[in-house]
Design a protein that fits this description.
Blueprint (H helix, E strand, L loop, with lengths): L20 H4 L5 H12 L11 H4 L46 H4 L14 H10 L1 H11 L5 H12 L8 H6 L8 H10 L19 E3 L14 H4 L7 E3 L21 H10 L18 H13 L7
Antiparallel strand pairs: 1-2
């Protein structure tokens, strides 16, 4: 289980690119953020005290993990691949299906989930109230004893500070030409032109926060119900949320089912397309990329995870 080895000032740096209005309106106090950070790494919120939030959202793996699906309590495994928490504070909708509208609601979902932490929220609150150290910390942070509302606020306060917006690509786009090498620059050109990546992975956070049917997870040409299971809209069959590409070099494997092991595999998938699958997003079609172009695109995707100046 990952330990808290983050810098003491983690999450306090001001971002230069990602400052949407809803984030600026957050009023979390340092005490609330510190409490959320402690809870994030503590297995107290799992039924057998064997996993924490960080077990699946490990800082060493870009706040995701290296598993196809993640192990939970009592031998359970998550239904889908664990997505990164990087920049989730800027999210508009949450989970692969977008069936959660706020970060405060999202952070509580793994706790009672039998595949993940398996502890009812009532029992989670009772545990925290029985723990003298937590009782004092909640009182200091909220002026109240632990409850579901302030538990979600504390966790969301910390998760909202898991952010990044300064990669080698950002440095290049700010005017430092040699922040990217020739192959990475070629990959950026491909990303923004014939590779069509920008059509879904757009904006400073490299996601349109929307949902698309890419063909991943299809069986015998048939798409999963996906978002349609939540909306009951047949147009949402096969549609899953577009993840951010920030930090993606750390978050393999890829896609909602973890079925693609490397970035090379991801690019290869989009080059060949989802043959025989109906109902795909109109944007999804085989990419006409030469082998050298594919290598350049992969190099650019890696550069999105390389810190500026490295």
């Amino acid at each position: 289980m990952p330990k808290d080895e983050l810098p003491a000032d983690f999450g306090t740096r001001s971002l230069t690119l990602l400052q949407p209005p809803d984030f600026r309106l957050r009023t979390d106090t340092p005490e609330q953020i510190a409490l959320g950070r402690k809870l994030y790494f503590d297995p107290i919120l799992s039924i057998d005290r064997s996993v924490s939030c960080a077990s699946c959202h490990d800082p060493a793996h870009g706040f995701a993990d290296g598993e196809v699906t993640s192990p939970g309590v009592l031998g359970g495994r998550t239904e889908r691949h664990t997505p990164s928490l990087l920049n989730r504070g800027f999210g508009l909708r949450f989970s692969w299906l977008g069936n959660v509208e706020t970060l405060e609601a999202q952070v509580l979902l793994p706790i009672p989930n039998e595949r993940e932490m398996g502890l009812s929220l009532t029992d989670a609150v009772d545990r925290l109230r029985a723990d003298e150290a937590y009782a004092r910390q909640f009182q200091a942070a909220f002026g109240a004893r632990p409850g579901m509302s302030n538990l979600s606020t504390a966790l969301a306060a910390f998760v909202a500070r898991i952010h990044t917006d300064e990669s080698a690509v950002d440095r290049f786009q700010s005017g430092v030409f040699d922040a990217l090498d020739d192959r990475e620059r070629a990959g950026l050109w491909l990303y923004e032109s014939k590779a069509n990546c920008w059509r879904c992975h757009t904006g400073h956070n490299y996601t349109d926060e929307s949902f698309h049917a890419t063909g991943i997870g299809a069986r015998d040409g048939k798409l999963e119900r996906a978002r349609a299971a939540f909306t009951d809209d047949e147009l949402d069959v096969g549609r899953f949320k577009t993840p951010t590409l920030r930090g993606l070099a750390l978050t393999a494997p890829y896609m909602h089912d973890g079925s693609l092991a490397t970035l090379e595999d991801v690019v290869a998938y989009y080059r060949r397309g989802a043959h025989g699958v109906t109902g795909l997003d109109e944007r999804i079609r085989p990419l006409e990329l030469a082998d050298d172009e594919a290598r350049s695109l992969v190099a650019f995707l890696h550069a999105l995870s390389r810190p500026a100046g490295n």
